[in-house]
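Recall the central idea of this unit: under ordinary conditions, the amino acid sequence of a chain determines the structure it adopts. In this exercise we apply that idea directly, starting from the sequence alone.
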Amino acid sequence: MEKTLIDYFLRLVQIDSESKDERDIALSLKADLEELGFSVVFDKANEKTGGTIGNLIASLPGKVDSKPLLLCAHLDTVTPGKGVKPVIEGDLIKSDGTTILGSDDKSGIAQIVWAIKEIIENDEPHPPVELLFTISEEIGLLGAKYCDYSLLKAKNCYTLDTHEIGAVMNGAPSQNNLLFIVHGKKAHAGVEPEKGLNAIRVAAEALSAIPLGRIDRETTCNIGVISGGTARNVVPDAVRIKGEVRSHNEEKLQEVTSQICDTMEKVVTSHRVNGYQAKVEVTVDKSYSAFLVPEEEMIVQIARKASQQLSLPDKVYRGGGGSDANIFNLHGIKTVVIGTGMDAVHTLEENISISALEKGMNWVKEILRLYTQAENNA
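Accordingly, the structure predicted from this sequence is:
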């Protein structure tokens, strides 16, 4: 392995690993972890995701007799993530501007591996450690959804997949994905437009009647994609609309989802021409369920204490986005999300500072130390 955390991170970001193509980075990490004394296996989640390899699951025996701790990050990146050429400018690491950097989530991977490496090299006591590096997180948390949880023993987990170092995300919302297909009637736009029923106009009227944006402090909804029509001179007969509803409150999630669907149905079907009634197909897909780990739980308190001891921001908050943690909590693994210092992710301006990489790694080390002490005192 490399001599420094920074060099290790630079190596990771230069390994192509867009969603469903994580094999190269997974095998590279397997060699690194085995060098540190981990046992490494891969599950068969890729058989359901269509990827090149399954989730990487690794385990390291503890130097103390305690319950294992699970650390997680995801292997995949968004596009464009091939041929990343990292550039260092002062304290900042970024790409050359033609791709993302891949600090989401290779900063998390690097901080986890390097923290454990330093603990081992310093012969420090540590609990049994399990690592889960998931595939296809960026395209729907698929690695977590199809993970073979029988390969894991830990019931407490930190997943490194948010921004601010020192901040602990202890809750996240449920999400419903929405798909509407609005059907109108096709006609020649210049010859007989009155015989058609413009699906784009119908869809626009329906969308203007539904709630969008922030509904309350717990709930948001959005329409993100609209596509339809075939030609400028043809009255369009179909429009596809993709949206979402998120809420920390399951009842509100269903209420707002129902309100949107009912409104779409009511407005669309109110349009008729020459005996033809517009219609809408509605599909609602539950993407993931909300979680909330109370602040008094040990894993939250340990992360906070570690932040305080390292003079990092001491912050606990509920986030607005989903992550692997939503799925882990559903499977009985108490999980919170902690930051790595990555910034402007999913853009060509993505970056992370050298100092943030080092602070995040030290935070993971301190969490491991405090977890070991807590387990010894339990």
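The CA atoms of residues 40 and 58 lie 4 Å apart.
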